[in-house]
Design a protein that fits this description.
This protein has 365 residues and is α/β, with parallel strands linked by helices. The chain has two domains: 179 residues, Rossmann fold (3-Layer(aba) Sandwich); 169 residues, Glycogen Phosphorylase B (Rossmann fold). It is built from 14 helices and 13 strands. The chain has a seven-stranded parallel sheet with strand order 3-2-1-4-5-6-7, with helices on both faces. Helix 5 links the parallel strand 5 and strand 6. It is elongated and about 65 Å long.
C-alpha cells in the first residue's frame, strides 16, 4: 500500500502489554516504510521508550482531559497532518475525537486493548458510533463487548490480536537460561510475566504456591502491587522458593527458563501477549477465561484453564502438569503450533494496514 503518516496517541503513563503493542506496531509500520509518530505525555514511559527505539515522539499534556491537552493535540495534528490518528486510551481518544469537530481532520481509529466496562451514556455512544472511523479490539470477545455496549455498527469494529516476533520468541535451552539467570537448575519452575496489577492474579498464584511442594516461582514484572506481593511472599514463608525478578527489558530468557507459564487473570484482559509469547516458546500455560484469553487458550489442548480467583485450582493445575511430563509436552507443542500459525507480528501489521486503508478511503469518499 502507499506510504502512510500515522499518529499514535497514548495518554496512559502506565506500562504493560498495551504500551508494548503500540510501540511494536509503530516499529513494524516504520519497517514497512510508513512514517509513524507517538504522541504521549512527556512523563510517560512510552514517550521515553519511543525515543530509545528510534521512533519520533511528540510530548503532549494529554494525561488527563483538559483544554491544554486538547489544544496541544490539535496543534500536533495540524502540524503533522497525519493520514490517520490511532488512539489507545480513553482520555486521548476523547481529546482526539474533539479535535475533529468543525474542521477537516484525519480519520480516528480507536484501538481498545482491555475488557473493562464501557460507560453507558449518550456521549460515549457518540464517541464510538460517530467520532471514530473504525474501532479495533485486541480480541473477538472485546469486539462483541464494544458492539453490545455501544451499539456501534459491527462492520466498523474488528478484532486484530497483538502479534509477536516469532524470530525472537521461540523454544530455547532451559538449562542454559537458568544458569544465566541464577535460577535453580533442577526445580520445576512456574513463572508469571505481567505488570504487577491486582487483576493479573499474582496474589492467587502465590497462595497456590503454598499448596505445592518442590516448585519454584518466578515473578517477572513490576507495578503498583509490587510491595504487596513481596510482603505476601515473605509472610507465606516462600522467600526461598520465589524469585522476584522485577522489570525485565528482555523476557525471552525468563520464558526459556520456565516449565510452565501461569497467568491467572480475573479482569480487564484482551488477548495477553505473555500467553502468546509463552506458547511461541513451547510452554504449556495455566490461565483463566478472563477477557479474550479463551480465544487462544483452549483447556486441555494448549493450556489448563482454571476458575478465576481460585488458588486451589491453580495449585491443582500446577501439580497436574508437574506430575505428567507427557501432558507438559503435548500442551507445549499444541501452543507452539498455534503460535506459528496465528500469532506473527506480520499478520497483525497486514490487518492494521487494511483497517487504516479502509478508514481513509471511506473518509475521502
Amino acid at each position: 500500500m502507499s506510504r502512510l503518516k500515522l499518529l499514535h496517541t497514548e495518554s496512559s503513563c502506565g506500562w504493560g502489554g498495551q504500551e508494548l503493542r503500540v510501540l511494536a506496531e509503530a516499529q513494524g509500520m516504520t519497517r514497512r516504510g510508513h512514517e509513524v509518530w507517538i504522541g504521549a505525555p512527556a512523563e510517560s514511559r512510552i514517550y521515553r521508550e519511543a525515543a530509545q527505539r528510534g521512533l519520533p515522539a511528540a510530548a503532549l499534556p494529554i494525561g488527563r482531559k483538559s483544554w491544554t491537552g486538547f489544544r496541544a493535540l490539535r496543534r500536533c495534528i495540524e502540524r503533522l497532518d497525519p493520514h490517520i490518528v490511532n488512539s489507545h486510551s480513553s482520555t486521548d481518544t476523547w481529546l482526539a475525537a474533539l479535535t475533529g469537530l468543525g474542521r477537516n481532520h484525519p480519520p480516528l481509529v480507536r484501538t481498545r486493548h482491555i475488557s473493562a466496562p464501557i460507560p453507558q451514556n449518550p456521549a460515549t455512544r457518540w464517541l464510538y458510533r460517530r467520532a471514530t472511523a473504525r474501532v479495533v479490539t485486541t480480541g473477538e470477545a472485546l469486539r462483541i463487548q464494544v458492539i453490545e455496549q455501544t451499539g456501534t455498527d459491527p462492520g466498523r469494529v474488528c478484532s486484530v490480536p497483538t502479534g509477536i516476533d516469532l524470530d525472537v520468541f521461540k523454544p530455547g535451552d532451559r538449562h542454559a537460561a537458568r544458569s544465566r539467570l541464577g535460577l535453580p537448575i533442577d526445580a520445576f519452575t512456574v513463572g508469571i510475566v505481567a505488570t504487577l496489577r491486582s487483576w493479573k492474579g499474582h496474589v492467587h498464584l502465590v497462595r497456590a504456591m503454598a499448596q505445592v511442594r518442590e516448585v519454584h516461582l518466578v515473578i517477572v514484572g513490576d507495578g503498583p502491587l509490587g510491595e504487596h506481593i513481596a510482603r505476601q511472599v515473605e509472610q507465606s514463608g516462600l522467600t526461598a522458593r520465589v524469585t522476584l525478578a522485577g522489570h525485565q527489558a528482555d523476557v525471552v530468557p525468563w520464558m526459556h527458563s520456565l516449565d510452565v507459564l501461569a497467568l491467572p487473570s480475573y479482569a480487564n484482559e484482551g488477548v495477553p501477549q505473555a500467553i502468546m509469547q509463552a506458547m511461541a516458546c513451547g510452554l504449556p500455560v495455566i490461565t483463566t477465561a478472563a477477557g479474550g484469553i479463551g480465544e487462544i487458550a483452549c483447556d486441555g489442548v494448549n493450556a489448563l484453564v482454571v476458575p478465576m480467583r481460585d488458588a486451589n485450582a491453580i495449585a491443582a493445575a500446577i501439580a497436574r502438569i508437574k506430575e505428567s511430563p507427557a501432558l507438559r509436552v503435548r500442551l507445549g507443542e499444541a501452543g507452539l503450533a498455534r503460535a506459528k500459525a496465528e500469532f506473527s507480528i506480520e499478520r497483525m501489521l497486514d490487518r492494521m494496514e487494511a483497517v487504516f486503508s479502509r478508514a481513509i478511503s471511506e473518509t475521502v469518499s
